[in-house]
Amino acid sequence: MPLILPSRPLTQDEFDGVLAQGYRRSGVFLYKTECSGCSACEPSRIDVQEFELRESWNRILKKGNQCLTIQIARPTVDTVRLDLFNAHRIERGLGEEDNPYRSSDYESFLVDSCLTDTVELSFWKDGSLVSVSIVDCGRNALSAVYTYFDPNHAKLSLGTYSILKQIEFAQTSGRQFAYLGMYVAQNRHLSYKARFIPQQRWIGAQWLKFENSNYPAG
Fold first, then answer.
1. pTM reported for the whole predicted model
2. Half-sphere exposure at residue 135, Cβ-oriented, CA atoms within 13 angstroms
């Protein structure tokens, strides 16, 4: 996974360009996966003008909108966010053998950025933080960096809700694409993205459209 460290913060237009070439961002770095003999990681994106809500997604949105408030601000780290982040990692079986993240770890992963415009979407229920999404903003696209949420609120389907709100954010701001990150068919933490169709995946240095989860259109 070669890392690229930009010499200065990328503008929104520049970031649109690197996203369109299959790059992702982590902290202050851009990266592509380049594993010898393996191409399982496929960057995925949704053309939000083509996206249509399923009935089940409408129910998730309705339930969440009734009891959650959303704040949009610059990413930050504090005890509340850090505790929620670590609780989510434990509950999802992510980094089970690692030590809990410290503030400096969180900051280098989710607060530091090589872009001019990265935002935090925080979701609150009755005054308590229940979910956070870090989102990069290009001029024509939004890119999901990471989402974590309170495992005690499973009935709100916070992971799905956060994606739907990011798609909605892209639509209302006049952007074309919502990038969902890497799709990996055999990874249970990444394969869920196949549910959001139609979508495009970066395969063989081109974006292929998928009308269903397994086969490209045409």
1. 0.92
2. 27
